């Protein structure tokens, strides 16, 4: 082959492989092959969606090339999120996790599309430096995309890697908001932003009881303490969804704080025996790895709420500013009269968070049992509404009308029993939007936000509501705040952001947000088409319109879109409908 047939050019290279592939194969070959095939589909979809090209998928590895650094990193983030989201109820030791490396450099490209050179080798070496489920990029990539993606970068310093003559400066990637200029972390690494408020993460409490069935008790206690802390406006509290990612891991406190941009870490353990419980808690200054405060609580189980109050008060009292307890606007808790009911609700919450049909049914049974044991337990009624809402939303119920009526009944009961439950107001606000009663939604959303200002579900819903009210720019900021609170947020947050950006006439931004969605549905493609039509990108609009009809051959704006559009301003509704028509979607 002559040199003229070889093309040398600058490209972004993505290299990936499976962590612990041999171990997974030894444990269950069939399941591992199936998981690998599913992961390859995610890679192929996201590489194509971000204007890349697959070079090779041999064995457990992936090699791809992109025209832009932004495309490569966006694809890597979407792949990791998509694979993690699809894992479902798979146990931690059986989950397939990829390490991904991304580099921007020269490659030599042959006529058959294969690529060679140091650029490829460096990407492969960066992949080897990444943690399972993580992304490692070179300084060239970090410099090209910094401030342009919803991601932070943690400087890992110069790395000496095999067969590369010079050290490679590496950065680990943290999914999250990058709308503000990069700040400096406790360790001096650029990329991860610290909140101006005291910021804190509550790591999952360790179950020391020795009984696997008590695992839910430790998890539930973690969530309740986290929720109590979230009621304080003076704190920036990392969400439960993010905290749960560290369950069962040996945690490096400094590393966790650096990744998430927090200054304080709470960790603890629970030992439950009979009607007694021992809870140990410690508060750590992540910058110095110094234990600011530690305590052990030995109590009868009936005193569990008093223990939670003591723990949260003690933690807040030690944070900068010496926050005064009587200056806090804290909602009064109403503990259940029956502790067995409380335990049922704890386990039901954990099952609900897994978002699959079988666990939802189990959660529903536990909630029913909790209400039988304590009919006046308002939080149980609120969570029954939430579990029924999950059935309604996923289509897991036989009678949608009856299920909707049951949700409303449970919310009415819950509100009557405990008007200070933020979940009750969150769900009531959402139901009110669906009914186009935006004034009622505003009331309940304000109550929810006042009761729990750090709940990412409440915060993202604030952004949604503001969008419906015609305040899209403000809505965008709230949705981005929710993404910051929960860097491992559900993919639907991207759709909320895309819709807010669309309403704000930021069509290109909306398209970029939609590209983070792993498996776009009919409505996603309809919005894609509308944005491209507004920008005059006719080929892209046509392609997404075709995807709409592929998923819904009988699609019409009146049937599929109008019922879910809840704009207060006629001009916003007219803009949305006109945009869909510009994309030549039928009325």
* Binned strand content: 15-25%
Overall body shape = globular
- Note the main sheet: 8 strands, mixed
- Helix amount: 40-55%
CATH superfamily caption of the domain at 3-175: Nucleotide cyclase, GGDEF domain
Query: Which runs of at least 5 residues are low in confidence (pLDDT < 50)?
Result: 177-193, 317-333
Number of strands: 14
Q: Output the CATH topology of the domain at 3-175.
A: Alpha-Beta Plaits
Structural class per helix/strand content?
Answer: alpha/beta
CATH class of the domain at 3-175: Alpha Beta
User: Quaternary state, please?
Assistant: single chain
Q: In whole angstroms, how far apart are the ends?
A: 57 Å
Spatial extent as radius of gyration: 25 Å
Which architecture of the domain at 3-175 does the CATH hierarchy give at level 2?
2-Layer Sandwich
Number of DSSP helical runs: 23
Average pLDDT, rounded to a whole number, is 81
């Amino acid at each position: 082959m002559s040199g003229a047939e070889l093309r040398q050019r600058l490209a972004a290279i993505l290299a990936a492989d499976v962590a612990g592939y041999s171990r997974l194969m030894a444990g269950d070959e069939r399941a591992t092959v199936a998981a690998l095939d599913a992961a390859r589909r995610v890679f192929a979809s996201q590489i194509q969606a971000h204007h890349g090209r697959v070079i090779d998928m041999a064995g457990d590895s992936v090699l791809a090339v992109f025209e832009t650094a932004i495309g490569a990193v966006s694809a890597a983030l979407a792949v990791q999120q998509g694979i993690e989201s699809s894992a479902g109820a798979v146990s931690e030791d059986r989950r397939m996790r990829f390490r991904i490396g991304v580099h921007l450099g020269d490659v030599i490209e042959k006529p058959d599309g294969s690529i060679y050179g140091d650029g490829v080798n460096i990407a492969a070496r960066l992949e080897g430096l990444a943690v399972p489920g993580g992304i490692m990029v070179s300084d060239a990539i970090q410099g090209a995309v910094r401030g342009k993606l919803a991601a932070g970068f943690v400087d890992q310093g110069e790395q000496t890697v095999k067969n590369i003559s010079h050290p490679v400066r590496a950065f680990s990637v943290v999914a999250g908001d990058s709308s503000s200029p990069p700040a400096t972390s406790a360790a001096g690494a650029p990329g991860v932003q610290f909140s101006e408020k005291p910021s804190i993460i509550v790591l999952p409490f360790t179950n020391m009881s020795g009984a696997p069935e008590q695992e839910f008790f430790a998890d539930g206690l973690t969530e309740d303490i986290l929720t109590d802390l979230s009621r304080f406006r003076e704190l920036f509290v990392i969400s439960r969804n993010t905290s749960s990612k560290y369950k069962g891991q040996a945690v490096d406190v400094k590393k966790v704080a650096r990744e998430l941009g927090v200054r304080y870490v709470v960790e603890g353990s629970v030992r439950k025996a009979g009607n007694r419980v021992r809870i140990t808690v410690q508060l750590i200054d992540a910058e110095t790895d110094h234990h600011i405060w530690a305590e052990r609580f030995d109590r009868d189980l009936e005193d569990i709420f008093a223990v939670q109050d003591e723990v949260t008060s003690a933690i807040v009292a030690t944070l900068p500013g010496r926050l005064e307890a009587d200056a806090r606007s804290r909602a009064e808790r109403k503990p259940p009269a029956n502790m067995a009911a409380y335990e049922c609700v704890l386990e039901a919450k954990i099952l609900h968070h897994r978002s699959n049909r079988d666990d939802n049914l189990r959660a529903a049974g536990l909630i029913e049992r909790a209400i039988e044991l304590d009919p006046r337990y308002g939080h149980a009624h609120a969570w029954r509404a939430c579990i029924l809402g999950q059935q309604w939303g996923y289509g897991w119920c036989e009678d949608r009308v009856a299920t909707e009526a049951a949700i409303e009944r449970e919310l009415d009961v819950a509100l009557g029993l405990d008007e200070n439950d933020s979940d009750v107001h969150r769900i009531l606000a959402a139901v009110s939007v669906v009914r186009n009663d935006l004034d009622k939604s505003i009331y309940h959303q304000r109550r929810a936000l006042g009761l729990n200002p750090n709940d990412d579900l409440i915060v993202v819903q604030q952004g949604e509501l503001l969008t419906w009210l015609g305040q899209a720019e403000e809505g965008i900021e709230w949705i981005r705040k929710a993404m910051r609170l929960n860097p491992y947020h559900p993919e639907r947050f991207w759709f909320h952001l895309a819709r807010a950006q669309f309403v704000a006439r930021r069509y290109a931004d909306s398209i970029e947000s939609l590209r983070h969605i792993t498996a776009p549905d009919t409505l996603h493609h309809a919005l894609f088409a509308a944005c491209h039509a507004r920008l005059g990108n006719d080929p892209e609009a046509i392609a997404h319109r075709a995807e709409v009809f592929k998923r819904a051959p009988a699609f019409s704006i009146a049937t599929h879109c109008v019922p879910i559009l809840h704009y207060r301003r006629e001009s916003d509704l007219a803009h949305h409908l006109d945009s869909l028509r510009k994309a030549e979607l039928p009325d």
